Task: structure prediction
Amino acid sequence: MDTLAYQPENCWTHYTSSQERVAMDGTAQEYLDFLSQCKTERETIAWLVDQAQQVGFSENLSADQVMISWRSKALVLVRRGRAPLSQGLRLITAHADTPHLDLKQHPLHEECQVALLKTHYYGGIKKYQWLARPLAVHGVVVRKDGQVVPVCVGEAESDPVFTVLDLLPHLSRKQREEVVDKAFVGEKLNVAVGHEPLDAEGQDRIQALVLKLLHSAYGIQEEDLFSAELQVVPAGKARFVGLDRSLLGGYGQDDRLCVFAAWRAFMNAPISEHAQVLVVWDKEEIGSDGATGAKSRFMEYALADLVDHWEPTSKLRHVLQRTKAISADVHAPMDPDYQDVHDKHNAALLGFGPVFSKFTGHGGKYGASEADAEYVAWFRNILAGENIPWQMAEMGKVDEGGGGTVAKDLAVYGMEIIDFGPGVLSMHSPFEISSKADLYATIKAYGAFFCS
Ligand SMILES: [Zn+2]
Result:
């Protein structure tokens, strides 16, 4: 009866040829370079647009390779297939935003001889993870004349970095007795940005020097900060982790791991039966609301424009209802130190390939989008045909918590969609961990889907 039982397969023992391992290493290095370079949604979209342009994508809606970006924060890429759009798309969607600290609109102040930038955190963070570590500032300042000034400080070897101060253990007795949520509060996530006064006389001389330095570097003044989008992110490059270099460590892997995997699969994919679509969103980490999140009309309008140009007699609703899609988002595999939050019988493991979550949401399946049995079976067959390892899992114990993705926002169009992505440990931390082997298998899996 052994053959009746399902055994998940370890990617490390599946991809053993030296050719596969060389490809795996090369892909991992390219991924780490991408992670090191792209730390905000704007930087990620700019990178994708640049790469897409290099291989012939344009905003010309009559062409066969089309790129539609939205406010520098969301993107739709489409490659025409052999079949008409009305037979549906092969669509993969991922998100480019990641948890970070946003500067407040009045960020600059000084206390106790230190100039500080006030922040409001974005997305689900454990606040203590952002203390006492080197931080960088990425983003844009837009001046009244409309000029967009890109900012990136803290990444070059010669750059200064920034930091949020932490309380010394000697005086932390009260803090230690607090529950974590009370011990670390948002209003104390202030970023140290200066210490030297502009001159000896007058008020607020330290912040005056910071303003002077900002003006000389970027031509901006305090009022420009009111409209700026400046994000505080962990400074430094993504790295291989472990003596065997098997793990990939870096900030923002949820969900840039899937953005990169889907992008590579999209680029590698030959023209196929169905049109291939890659959609990258912003704002997933805070509920997908707003003009650039998955609840917006951006994708719908972009595809409507495409239908108008490519197939004016087809109906967009039919295109969407006949579409098969992947919500490419990362999964929480078993954490070796916190195994008790997982249901071992329904948990994924790092290194066993991309993970299907048939449904997301939390206790009682609230807020869930659930893929049909028919669709999951169809997908299993695609992966079996290409001999790609994969796993089926649920994130955490039933009453332990949970999470949502953009799947439910796209499912409303009637398309078939399932969450399917690699595992990430230390998720939402400044240094997330993924598996080199999972990245490799995920690219292959997304590629098989695009060509299905
Ligand atoms: Zn995510």
